Amino acid sequence: MDFVIRYKGECTLVEVKAASGNIKSTKTILAHPEKYHVNSAIKLGDYNVGRNDQVLTLPHYMAFLLTAL
Questions:
Q1: What local confidence, expressed as pLDDT, does residue 20 receive?
Q2: pLDDT averaged over consecutive 10-residue blocks of the chain (69 residues)?
Q3: Residues near 28 by Cβ (< 8 Å), separated by ≥ 6?
Q4: How many CB atoms lie within 10 A of CB 49?
Q5: CA 23, chain centre distance (Å)
Q6: Which of 44, 24, 21, 26 is nearest to 36 (CA)?
Q7: Which residues partner with 32 through β-bridges?
Q8: Helical ranges in 1-69 per DSSP H
């Protein structure tokens, strides 16, 4: 499931994964900021906290913190 939130005045894509997996659609959107106007993403899933280029990875249980960003 994908949705967009506003973070620091910019649109940020949020992708939720049931298990670890590929984020092909997110990579496509981030590769074309002139078309989609999105420069970063947050991925929620069965992961540890981490960052890889434009994608912030968070475990599911931290989803409630998205309102505090």
A1: 65
A2: 79 83 84 92 90 91 77
A3: none
A4: 9
A5: 9
A6: 26
A7: none
A8: 24-31, 33-36
